[in-house]
Specification:
The chain folds into two domains: 247 residues, Spore Coat Polysaccharide Biosynthesis Protein SpsA, Chain A, CATH 3.90.550.10; 121 residues. The chain has twelve helices and seven strands. The protein is α/β, with parallel strands linked by helices. 51% of the residues lie in helices and 10% in strands. It is elongated.
């Protein structure tokens, strides 16, 4: 079909003979304008190397998946892993790497900002120097950030400084999204990975029980080929979540910590609204409390949908259905809170301790119900 034809390759690639040596994992989300170009560039760069590309798509709403499937009909080294009901760059990379038997794995973006011509050199380094991982660096000597804005450059450098404290290795670009590693390295760390946010390289280094042997290759960070950047205001939050997960995740789930933090914001909002109803609008306590409770719960739901469960975000009808289930969960949670607090108080505990126990139990209840029913895991 003409719609799926490559503008640069005039003939289908011949079937590859022998086992795949290298798998390139390319996460996608609405990248219909880049898929053909990604494959063509990989084909030219890798030559006779036995390789495959695994596009891991987070349920794109454009023609990304259709284009991948169309290409796969004529090129036997293309695979598509489509994820429905879940999102996240780091988890997409992990799922893609775990879906192949190739002994060497590479990760790169679909926007063509990474230099695919470095892949053969990365592969050669892994084979010759007994390295664990080779990283494409935007900050090593000889590298370039291209036309990246000054603000984004400062954020990247700041993120790298923070990341080095966590990885404890002198990487110039620990937040790089372009790297290659041996499969056994992934197998060693996969059960410790947070899979939070978008910086899987940082996660791998921070999760390894031993210092990883690495090399960095400088490259010029190119401009996006087609489509819109996925970087938004949540990137800083996701980076912070990853850092927090590596620091405290073994003690307190970071998602639960976010849920509680949003709950505290809702509590402050509730008190402010209750005060406004009583002293500004001169409403009876009952109505002031009811209005404050509904608005605070709605605000909590929205914030949790945006941040705490951003990878399971609800839209449209599912948003309204989720809001209703969240109201029910919170209402039941309030009863659980009161009953537990009363029980502990009757046992002779101080009122403050009893109240705290009730609040903790209520929060755990709300979190469990919300995770199970409101924001269902795929």
């Amino acid at each position: 079909m003409a719609f799926f034809s490559s503008p640069e390759m005039t003939e289908p690639s011949q079937d590859q003979v022998g086992p795949v040596k290298l798998a390139i994992i390319v996460p996608t989300l609405n990248e219909e304008g880049n898929i053909v170009a990604v494959y063509d560039r990989l084909h030219r760069a890798l030559g006779s190397i036995r390789w495959e590309v695994i596009f891991v798509d987070d349920d794109s709403v454009d023609a990304t998946v259709e284009i991948i499937h169309g290409l796969a009909l004529s090129h036997n080294n293309i695979r598509c892993l489509r994820r429905v009901g879940r999102r996240g760059l780091a988890s997409a990379c992990v799922e893609g790497m775990m879906a192949t038997a190739a002994p060497v794995l590479a990760v790169m973006d679909a926007d063509l900002q990474h230099d695919e011509t470095l892949l053969p050199r990365m592969l050669a380094l892994l084979g010759q120097d007994d390295l664990d991982i080779v990283v494409g660096s935007r900050f090593a000597e000889g590298a370039s950030l291209g036309d990246v804005s000054a603000v984004r450059e400062r954020l990247s450098r700041w993120g790298n400084d923070i990341s080095r404290l966590l990885t404890r290795v002198p990487l110039t670009d620990p937040m790089s999204g372009f790297f290659m590693l041996r499969r056994d390295v992934l197998e060693d760390v996969v059960h410790s990975l947070s899979q939070e946010g978008f910086k899987i390289l940082l996660d791998i280094f921070a999760s390894s029980a031993r210092p990883l042997k690495f090399a960095e290759l400088p490259y010029a960070f190119a401009s996006r080929h087609s489509g819109r950047s996925k970087l938004d205001t949540l990137i800083l939050l996701e980076f912070s979540i990853l850092i927090a997960d590596k620091l405290i995740g073994s003690f307190i789930p970071v998602r639960f910590a976010l849920f509680v933090l949003v709950g505290l914001v809702g509590l402050v909002l509730h008190i402010l609204l209750l005060s406004a109803g009583l002293f500004i609008l001169d409403l009876p306590f009952y109505w002031s409390q009811a209005i404050a409770a509904v608005i605070a719960m709605t605000g909590n739901f929205y914030l949790n949908n945006q941040f705490t469960y951003r990878d399971r975000r609800l839209y449209g009808f599912q948003f309204m259905k989720g809001l209703l289930s969240f109201y029910i969960a919170c209402a039941i949670g309030a009863v659980v809170n009161l009953q537990m607090a009363e029980y502990v108080f009757q046992l002779g505990a101080h009122w403050a301790l009893a109240g705290m126990v009730g609040a903790v139990v209520g929060s755990v209840w709300n979190y469990g119900i919300a995770s199970t029913f409101t924001w269902k895991s795929a």
